[in-house]
Amino acid sequence: MNRIRLVWSCIWNVLAEFFVSVGLSENLSVAIFVMDSLWQLAMKFLEREELANYNFQNEFLRPFVVVMQKSVSSEIRELIVRCVSQMVLGRVNHVKSGWKSVFTVFTVAAADERKSIVLLAFGTMEKIVRDYFPYITETETTTFTDCVKCLIALQTADSIVMQALMLLFVSSFLCC
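^ thats the sequence. predicted structure below, dont judge the formating
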């Protein structure tokens, strides 16, 4: 963990491919183990402050996004949403460029066929908007746009349309 960020970036290019390929494994136990390992590593990286104009958080969270998009296993998709939720809520004050990957994971979850995954993503988004909105707006200007896109995706889920619309309203009010 004490290597310079440039070195970690080179190492991560290789590790990210490994996490994605094993995370998409047909062996559910192996895929769960690797996603849990990725979560633990990401939690460690989120303890460190991200340098300005540096997107390493987005890079190391990217395997979660890719596996979320490509996995046929609902167990893996649910695990990813739980991992990302726990990461964000536990280290919200350290998240900078990682918001993009976080919102992408929740946007993909919004279209999931399993209602439990959609509701889990929505619950986390609700908490982020209500309790941690200033952390979103203090980073890149596109972060708020990614947040709104995610809320719009979540509003298509039948049971949470009104709640998602209310969060959109609240987030637009908080932003102005």
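The chain has one domain: 5-175.
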